[in-house]
Design goal:
Order of helices and strands: EEEHEEEHHHEHEHEEHHEEEHEEEEEEE
CATH topology of the largest domain: Rossmann fold
CATH class of the largest domain: Alpha Beta
Distance between the termini: 29 Å
Strand content: 35-45%
Largest sheet: 6 strands, mixed
Radius of gyration: 25 Å
C-alpha cells in the first residue's frame, strides 16, 4: 500500500439534518486498492459519510473527490462506485444469474458482454454452480455473495459496504470476513466498509478510521490502532482496556511518574513527544490491555508492576477465560487467560487471593 495514491479524498465534509450535526468537518484519504473501514458506535456518522460517497446524501459543506473528480452535483448512477447494503436487496423472483446481470441490462449492455461479465463475477464470488437458483434457495452467506457479485459486475472504482455482515450468524460472519478479504485481493479495487464491530474491522481492513460524534478520532492500521490508541475513546472502543485515572507527578524525557488512583505511583515509559506535552499535575489515563496482564499466586520478581487482590468473577469462553480481580485498593482489573492446557477444572477459583502483574512498557498514557 506504500506509495499508493488516494482514490477517495474527503475534505472538511460536514452534514447536518436540521439542528443535528451528523458529520462534522471530516477530512481523510482512502488509497487505491485499499480495504478501508469506517468504525464506530451507532449514530457516530459513519453510514452518513458512506451515503455521501455514494451520492445518496449531499454534504452540507466540504468536498468529496473520487478518482480525482469532484462529486459535487454528480448523481449516484454517474459515480464510479457501487454499494452493497445491509439487507442485500436481491430480487426474490430472479435467478442468481439474472440478479447479477440486472444492472448491466438496465444500461443496455450487449448480451455477449453481459454473459461474460456475469460469469466472471460469479466465478469470483464462488457462485457459478448456483447461477440458476432463486434467492430463497440460498443461505444467508450465499445471498450476501449475490449482492457482492451484482455490485462488482459493474466494475466500480470503489465498492461501498454498509454493515454487510450484520445479518449473519457469528460463525458465518467470520467466514465471510475472510471471503471479503480474498475477494478484495482478487479484484484489486478499493473497498470501504462501515461497521460497528471492532473485530470485523481489525481482521479485514488495511486502515481504520474510528468515528465518534460525527468526527474522526484516529486513522491508523489495525495493529497501530490497537496498541497505540491516541485517546481514551479509541482505547476503550477498540478491544477491551483496563483504564485508570492518574496525575503526572514528575516527568523525564522518556518516562513519567504518575500517581494512579488506587494503584499508587507508577513509572510509565513514554515517547519524548508525549512527555514534552505533559506538565506536572496533568490529568492522564493509564491503560493496559487485559491480555498483557498476568496472574500468579506470588508477586512478580522481575521488576514488573505487581498488585494483590482477589478473584471476583470468571467468564469462560472456551479458548480463553476472562478473569476479573478486585484489587486490595478497591479497583477492578481484567485479565484474559488462554486456556492452553486441556482441563475441565479452572486454574483459579472465585475468592482466591492472587497477584496480577504487567510490564511497565505495556502501559499506555492517554491524554484525550
Amino acid at each position: 500500500m506504500t506509495g499508493a495514491s488516494p482514490i477517495v479524498s474527503i475534505r472538511r465534509v460536514r452534514k447536518t439534518f436540521g439542528p443535528v450535526v451528523a458529520v462534522n468537518d471530516v477530512s481523510l484519504d482512502v488509497l487505491a486498492n485499499e480495504f478501508f473501514a469506517l468504525l464506530g458506535p451507532s449514530g457516530c456518522g459513519k453510514t452518513t459519510l458512506l451515503r455521501m460517497l455514494a451520492g445518496l446524501e449531499m454534504p452540507s459543506g466540504g468536498e468529496i473527490l473520487i478518482d480525482g473528480q469532484d462529486m459535487t452535483g454528480v448523481p449516484p448512477n454517474r459515480r464510479p462506485v457501487n454499494m452493497v447494503f445491509q439487507s442485500y436487496a436481491v430480487f426474490p423472483h430472479m435467478s442468481v444469474f439474472d440478479n447479477v446481470a440486472y444492472g448491466l441490462r438496465v444500461v443496455k449492455t450487449a448480451a455477449r458482454e453481459v454473459e461474460t461479465r456475469v460469469r466472471e463475477a460469479l466465478d469470483m464470488t464462488r457462485l457459478s454452480e448456483l447461477a440458476e437458483r432463486k434467492p430463497d434457495q440460498l443461505s444467508g452467506g450465499q445471498r450476501q455473495r449475490v449482492a457482492l457479485a451484482r455490485a462488482l459486475v459493474k466494475q466500480p472504482k470503489v465498492l461501498l459496504l454498509d454493515e454487510p455482515l450484520s445479518a449473519l450468524d457469528a460463525k458465518l460472519r467470520e467466514a465471510m470476513q475472510l471471503e471479503l478479504v480474498r475477494l478484495q485481493n482478487t479484484v484489486g479495487i478499493t473497498f470501504i466498509i462501515v461497521t460497528h464491530d471492532q473485530s470485523e474491522a481489525l481482521s479485514m481492513a488495511n486502515r481504520i478510521a474510528v468515528m465518534e460524534g460525527g468526527e474522526v478520532r484516529q486513522v491508523a492500521p489495525p495493529a497501530e490502532l490497537y496498541e497505540y490508541p491516541n485517546c481514551r475513546f479509541v482505547a476503550d472502543f477498540i478491544g477491551k482496556m483496563n483504564l485508570f485515572q492518574g496525575r503526572v507527578v514528575t516527568r523525564q524525557v522518556t518516562e513519567l511518574v504518575v500517581e494512579v488512583e488506587g494503584l499508587g505511583r507508577l513509572d510509565v515509559p513514554v515517547g519524548a513527544e508525549v512527555a514534552g506535552a505533559l506538565g506536572e499535575g496533568a490529568a492522564v489515563g493509564i491503560a493496559v490491555r487485559p491480555e498483557k496482564v498476568r496472574i500468579g499466586r506470588e508477586a512478580s520478581p522481575d521488576g514488573r508492576i505487581s498488585l494483590p487482590g482477589k478473584v471476583s468473577q470468571i467468564a469462560y469462553y472456551g479458548g480463553a477465560s476472562h478473569l476479573f480481580m478486585t484489587l486490595d485498593s478497591g479497583q477492578t482489573i481484567n485479565a484474559n487467560l488462554q486456556n492452553d492446557v486441556r482441563s475441565a477444572n479452572p486454574t483459579f477459583a472465585l475468592g482466591e487471593a492472587l497477584w496480577c502483574f504487567w510490564a511497565p512498557g505495556d502501559m499506555l498514557v492517554l491524554t484525550g
